[in-house]
Amino acid sequence: MISLGGLCHDSGLMEKEEIHGYLYILIGSTLWGISSVVAKSLFNIGLPPAELVFIRLTLATLTLLLILLFFDQQFSVKINRMGDLASEG
User: Fold this and answer.
1) Could you read off the pLDDT of 11-33 as tens digits, one per residue?
2) Which residues are CB-contacts of 42 (< 8 A; sequence separation ≥ 6)?
3) CA 58, CA 89: separation in Å to the nearest integer?
4) DSSP per residue, the chain
5) Rounded to two decimals, what is the model's pTM?
6) Are 52 and 24 in contact (CB under 8 A)?
7) For 46, left (φ over 0), alpha (ψ -120 to 50), or beta?
């Protein structure tokens, strides 16, 4: 066991959370790189930058909402509050 500044770390296998962290970094950096290629392609076919920003924000909001609904059991949204949630992003 290695101790660095009070933090202990086994020199053997990585923990599940650590593997998830590296996986999230890999996925995030890959998507970040792909987004510039997609944006350049959309600009070349005539899509204005403001519309691209709107599309990105809409997709991000919907994706995060779906993740929260499926994976966070404590998250609940009342139907009458959906408009507020959508308008706040």
Assistant:
1) 556 788 888 889 999 999 999 99
2) 52
3) 8
4) -EEETTEEE-SSSPPHHHHHHHHHHHHHHHHHHHHHHHHHHHHHTT--HHHHHHHHHHHHHHHHHHHHHHH-TT----GGGHHHHHHH-
5) 0.55
6) no
7) left
